[in-house]
């Protein structure tokens, strides 16, 4: 009998405590910018693709859910010819983002990835590529790399001296 | 052996080696850059520093570059000492000062020796805050990309390209931190061995251009041991595949066949596998002459139908595997099978075999050719027909410098010392060919003469060495005298010849010289280059039917149908004769890799798998049977030829040909032919498992994208194919430990991601592989008396002097059928040409560069070669849309004003 009364009392107490239930989806929870959700490919400050198809995300991925192929544009940049993430396998661990040397691949606070058809969980480059810089507004890999691209000749990257005259023999 | 204490542990090292090589031979890790096993030490990078102690009590020791220290008994050294470690770390930091932030966009990344060494020495963060020096890159041709900013000035490239491969158009320019490695100006690299720079360069300065176009990291490449189909040398290769297409071909170390290097035909010729001209589906020719697609099962049924209707001939091929050839032979019967080699060439292959089988001289391997101390080349232009041999011959002239160094007490690994001590001295190298060759620069004397005169010179040389051998009239006396003198003084003389100049007398002459030398008590070697990857295999397999006879039977209606295996008959015989013969029979079944003229004339075409997509055996020019393994599963209905033939045999109710495995075919092949006995021993059978009971993985343990690469087709991952044919798996699971040397699908070792890791698979550096021999030599020479040998070839050729004589020539880029379909090779191919001596051309009223029409053959560009033999008209054969066989004797030459020359390779882009 005592135990019944105690239970009733406890339940009654909860009537006055703060409500933990969130009325999702009408009410959206706050997720930090660094929350690890849906993966995107970002662009550099000039609006060009950041991804250089180096394959480091793919090799870092513990569930091997990233596949891509390198190609090279007329402008000398490396691009992914295709870039595919199988979100039905992705565990949102963020290893790809950690491995990415160009800040191209980033995880976002969007976790709403449910689909009725599993095939729709496979995202191609056109689904992944966004029009912004994501969490890293300033970084542009090609400005620190030594390779020439259109608009950035040898010696024009950060901390580079102008190209040398190799026929110069003075000490 | 020398007892050396390394970090408190005693090792037995080889005295006289440098310490670095000896340490690596013990499979210890010691960072290095400028040293290369094939090129010796120069001590320029300062990375392989170790501490050498004076004696057991010495606690401080002194810093030494391991590559410059001779191994001596009782030495005490330390690799792990803090001072040595710090020094190495500092050296890497210097080297990395100017290295660009390029790894993500560098084709070397993931298999970069610089990355490995940086990690191994522990240099993790950059302290240098200054600016980096930069260079402009050069256009180096369709094979090699150039990114000079990445250079760490190790000098390996120029040491390889100039000193090892004999190239002249790659130099070191500038001084101090301005060192630049490249050409004088933009342009195509001349050497046919330039591709090795990709593997020689420890970082990403020289990279594989065709590979870069659809680049894949090394860890993602699926790979298996393979053999190059480009020529008769049979270089071991590692083709890499990703997403169903062949990405690149890398060298697979073989201590006797190809060592550390490949030629550019082998390295860049493999892209024919991705050619749009590939046959991917079976097709049957409809009445309007257009092929209609056919599924695999019905195609096999149709072949069975053909087999059930009357007399069927089988024409094999010297570019198809031994197993495929044998399957066809078994299907149609010995009396109806031709090896598919034109009769003249088949006779030469048989002669080559009989010369080898007669004994009398050692059958030299390619790598053995490197240590010959006198070389005579008769007739064969090896740099164009079997290029890897030319690279080995280039090393042979260094025998004298090495002997001189040994006499002077200079360690042989001391590259700069050996070279400067010898100055210009080199071992004798004599060459006699009708046309100039790319190794003429080595020759103490080069004879330019017709094949008969070359043979006559050979006969006379043999007679000069031992007068029991037949003498020949009309040989160049100066050349003969010099050759006799040079070869008689040598201890390990080598005679090189081959079948490409189309003369039996040349082969006989070469055999005579080698036998005569052996008779003098020398360790004489004989190296004969065959024409195609499996020429000798086809010759050993044999066929009762000659190709001309086979064609005659077709033309005369004595056969109802013909099955042609991976063979474009239009490349071997007169086009009209072939078309006529094929038009006569009801069914022409062609199995091939590419769309060929013969495939177009077929009534039924079956898509055959290329070397990279199938498992089989090739027999190389020295009679070595080598197994190549399927690297990746072919697309669509493509299947190995032997499998098509077996399926057809089963559909036709031939229960004796119910082979399930390639091993069954190989065993059946051996059963009927004692010469081929070794084929069954080349590799363990498909049931082989490594020590842990696992298959050997074709993929590296880091292979990526498993759950995504096919997800666009279906999100449900398919079960990986279980490979019943080989001990390999299509998986990343298992261990690539090199327990069996013939089963190494890629080279990798912890900490050593680059191809430098191959030393971990070797018993000792540059020595045999840990897992035993690769390939089995099939030819067991008899031991005949010298008299019997001397009695074999007694008919020296008569030298004709009237009129022009056609001489077959070949070009490394373009003359080979398959590699010519590889885009970078096609870009380098100069096209068909007629080569004439300027005076011969003047007599005919022809000028350099103009088009010349050859009656019955077609038009081609005339090139004047001042170094061409008089009276010889060289024709570059095998080029697409040009002459495939020599014109008839006495065919008329006339100028062709409408001829449009093919544009030469030129500067097309800047990197």
Please provide a written account of the structure.
Chain A is of the alpha+beta class and 171 residues long. Chain A has four helices and six strands. In chain A, the strands form two sheets. Chain A has a three-stranded antiparallel sheet. In chain A, strands 1-4 form a two-stranded antiparallel ribbon. The longest helix of chain A is centred in the N-terminal third of the chain and has 13 residues, at 2-14. Chain A is elongated and about 100 Å long. The model of chain A has no long low-confidence stretch (mean pLDDT 94). With 911 residues, chain B is of the alpha/beta class. Chain B is built from 27 helices and 38 strands. In chain B, helix 21 links the parallel strand 25 (561-565) and strand 26. In chain B, the strands form nine sheets. A seven-stranded mixed sheet of chain B has the order 16-15-27-26-25-17-18, sandwiched between helices. At the A-B interface, helix 2, strand 2, strand 3 and strand 6 of A face strand 6 of B.
Strand and helix layout:
The complex is a heterodimer of chains A (171) and B (911).
Chain A: H1 2-14, E1 39-41, H2 56-60, E2 66-72, E3 78-86, H3 95-99, E4 105-107, E5 122-123, H4 125-128, E6 160-163
Chain B: E1 2-6, E2 9-13, H1 19-25, E3 49-53, E4 62-65, E5 76-78, H2 82-96, H3 113-121, E6 132-134, E7 144-146, H4 156-164, E8 171-173, E9 180-182, H5 197-200, E10 206-208, H6 209-213, E11 222-223, E12 226-227, E13 236-242, E14 245-251, H7 264-268, E15 282-285, E16 291-294, H8 296-308, E17 312-315, H9 322-332, E18 337-338, H10 343-357, E19 362-363, H11 366-369, E20 374-378, H12 382-385, H13 387-396, H14 399-407, H15 415-422, E21 429-433, E22 445-448, H16 451-465, H17 477-489, E23 493-498, H18 504-519, E24 525-529, H19 535-541, H20 547-555, E25 561-565, H21 575-584, E26 587-592, H22 597-600, E27 604-607, E28 616-619, E29 624-628, H23 641-651, H24 662-671, E30 696-697, E31 728-729, E32 776-777, H25 786-790, E33 805-809, H26 823-828, E34 833-836, H27 838-844, E35 851-854, E36 858-864, E37 872-876, E38 893-895
Parallel strand pairs in B: 1-5, 17-18, 17-25, 19-24, 20-21, 20-23, 21-22, 23-24, 25-26, 26-27, 30-31, 33-37, 34-36
Antiparallel strand pairs in B: 1-2, 3-4, 3-5, 7-10, 8-9, 11-13, 12-13, 13-14, 15-16, 15-27, 28-29, 29-32, 34-37, 35-36, 35-38
């Amino acid at each position: 009998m005592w135990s019944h009364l105690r239970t009733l009392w406890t339940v009654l107490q909860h009537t006055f405590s703060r409500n933990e239930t969130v009325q999702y989806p009408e009410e959206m929870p706050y997720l930090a910018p660094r929350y690890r959700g849906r993966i995107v490919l970002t662009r550099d400050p000039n609006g060009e693709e950041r991804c250089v198809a180096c394959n480091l995300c793919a090799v870092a991925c513990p569930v091997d859910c990233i596949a891509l192929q390198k190609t090279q544009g007329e402008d000398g940049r490396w691009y992914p010819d295709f870039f595919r993430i199988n979100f039905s396998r992705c565990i949102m661990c963020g290893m790809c983002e950690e491995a990415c040397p160009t800040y191209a691949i980033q995880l976002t606070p969007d976790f709403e990835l449910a689909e009725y058809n599993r095939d729709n969980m496979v995202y191609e480059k056109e689904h992944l590529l966004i029009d912004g810089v994501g969490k890293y507004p300033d970084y542009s890999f090609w400005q620190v790399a030594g390779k020439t691209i259109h608009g950035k000749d040898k010696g024009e990257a950060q901390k580079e001296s102008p190209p040398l005259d190799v026929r110069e023999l003075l000490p | 052996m020398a007892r050396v204490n390394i970090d408190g542990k005693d090792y037995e090292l080889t005295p006289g080696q440098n310490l670095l090589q000896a340490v690596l031979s013990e499979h210890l890790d010691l960072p290095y850059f400028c040293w290369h096993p094939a090129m010796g030490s120069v001590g320029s990078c300062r990375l392989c520093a170790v501490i050498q102690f004076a004696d057991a009590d010495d606690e401080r020791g002194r810093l030494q570059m391991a590559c410059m220290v001779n191994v001596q008994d009782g030495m005490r050294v330390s690799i792990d000492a803090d001072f040595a470690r710090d020094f190495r770390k500092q050296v890497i930091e210097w080297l990395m000062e100017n290295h660009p932030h390029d790894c993500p966009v560098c084709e070397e990344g993931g298999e970069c020796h610089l990355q490995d060494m940086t990690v191994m020495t522990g240099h993790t963060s950059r302290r240098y805050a200054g600016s980096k020096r930069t260079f402009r890159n050069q256009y180096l041709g369709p094979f090699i990309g150039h990114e000079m900013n990445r250079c760490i000035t190790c000098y390996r490239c120029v040491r390889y390209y100039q000193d090892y491969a004999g190239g002249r158009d790659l130099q070191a320019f500038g001084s101090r931190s301005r060192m630049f490695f490249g050409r004088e100006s933009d342009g195509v690299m001349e050497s046919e061995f330039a591709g090795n720079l990709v593997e020689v360069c420890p970082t990403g300065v020289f990279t594989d251009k065709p590979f870069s176009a659809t680049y894949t990291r090394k860890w993602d490449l699926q790979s298996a041991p393979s053999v190059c189909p480009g020529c008769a040398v049979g270089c071991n290769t590692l083709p890499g595949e990703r997403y169903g297409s062949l990405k690149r071909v890398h060298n697979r170390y073989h201590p006797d066949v190809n060592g550390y290097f490949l030629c550019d035909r082998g390295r860049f010729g493999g892209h024919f596998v991705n050619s749009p001209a590939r046959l991917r589906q079976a097709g049957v020719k409809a009445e309007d002459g257009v092929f209609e697609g056919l599924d695999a099962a019905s195609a096999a049924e149709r072949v069975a139908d053909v087999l059930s209707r009357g007399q069927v001939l089988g024409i094999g091929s010297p570019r198809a595997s031994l197993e495929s050839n044998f399957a066809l032979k078994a299907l149609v019967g010995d009396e109806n099978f031709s090896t598919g080699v034109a009769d003249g060439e088949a006779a030469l292959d048989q002669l080559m075999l009989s010369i080898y089988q007669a004994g009398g001289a050692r059958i030299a391997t390619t790598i053995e050719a490197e240590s010959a101390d006198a070389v005579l080349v008769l007739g064969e232009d090896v740099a164009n027909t079997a290029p890897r041999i030319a690279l080995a011959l280039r090393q042979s002239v260094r025998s004298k410098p090495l002997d001189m160094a040994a006499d002077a007490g200079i360690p042989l690994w001391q590259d700069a010392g050996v070279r400067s001590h010898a100055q210009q001295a080199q071992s004798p190298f004599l060459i006699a060919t009708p046309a100039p060759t790319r190794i003429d620069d080595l020759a103490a004397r080069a004879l330019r003469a017709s094949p008969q005169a070359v043979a006559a010179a050979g006969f006379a040389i043999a007679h000069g060495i031992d007068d029991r051998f037949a003498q020949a009239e009309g040989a160049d006396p100066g050349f003969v005298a010099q050759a006799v003198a040079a070869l008689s003084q040598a201890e390990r003389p080598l005679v090189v010849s081959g079948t490409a100049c189309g003369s039996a007398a040349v082969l006989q002459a070469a055999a005579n010289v080698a036998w005569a030398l052996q008779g003098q008590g020398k360790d004489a070697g004989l190296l004969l280059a065959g024409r195609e990857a499996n020429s000798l295999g086809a010759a050993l397999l044999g066929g009762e039917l000659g190709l001309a006879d086979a064609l005659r039977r077709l033309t005369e209606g004595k056969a109802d149908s013909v099955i042609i295996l991976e063979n474009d008959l239009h490349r071997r015989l007169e086009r009209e004769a072939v078309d006529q013969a094929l038009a006569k029979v009801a069914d022409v079944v062609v199995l091939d890799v590419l769309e060929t003229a013969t495939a177009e004339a077929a009534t039924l075409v079956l898509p055959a798998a290329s070397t990279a997509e199938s498992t089989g055996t090739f027999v190389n020019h020295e009679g070595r049977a080598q197994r190549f393994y399927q690297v990746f599963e072919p697309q669509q209905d493509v299947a190995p030829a032997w499998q098509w033939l077996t399926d057809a045999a089963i559909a036709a109710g031939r229960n004796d040909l119910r082979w399930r495995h390639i091993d069954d075919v190989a065993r059946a092949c051996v059963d009927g032919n004692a010469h081929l006995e070794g084929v069954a021993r080349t590799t363990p059978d498909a049931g082989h498992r490594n020590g842990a009971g696992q298959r050997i993985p074709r993929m590296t343990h880091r292979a990526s994208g498993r759950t995504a690469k096919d997800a666009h087709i279906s999100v449900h991952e398919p079960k990986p194919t279980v490979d019943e044919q080989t001990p390999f798996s299509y998986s990343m699971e298992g261990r690539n430990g090199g327990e069996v040397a013939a089963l190494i699908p890629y080279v990798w070792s912890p900490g050593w991601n680059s191809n430098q890791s191959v030393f971990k698979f070797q018993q000792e550096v540059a020595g045999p592989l840990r897992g035993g021999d690769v390939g089995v030599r099939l030819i067991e020479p008899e031991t005949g008396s010298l008299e019997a040998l001397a009695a074999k070839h007694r008919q020296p050729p008569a030298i004709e002097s009237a009129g022009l004589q056609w001489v077959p020539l070949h070009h490394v880029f373009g003359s080979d059928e398959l590699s010519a379909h590889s885009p970078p090779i096609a870009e380098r191919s100069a096209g068909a040409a007629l080569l004439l001596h300027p005076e011969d051309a003047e007599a005919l009223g022809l000028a350099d560069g103009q088009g010349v029409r050859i009656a019955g053959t077609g038009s081609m560009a005339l090139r004047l070669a001042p170094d061409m033999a008089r009276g010889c008209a060289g024709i570059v054969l095998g080029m697409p849309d040009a002459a495939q066989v020599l014109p008839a004797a006495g065919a008329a030459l006339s100028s062709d004003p409408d001829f449009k020359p093919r544009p030469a390779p030129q500067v097309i882009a800047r990197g």
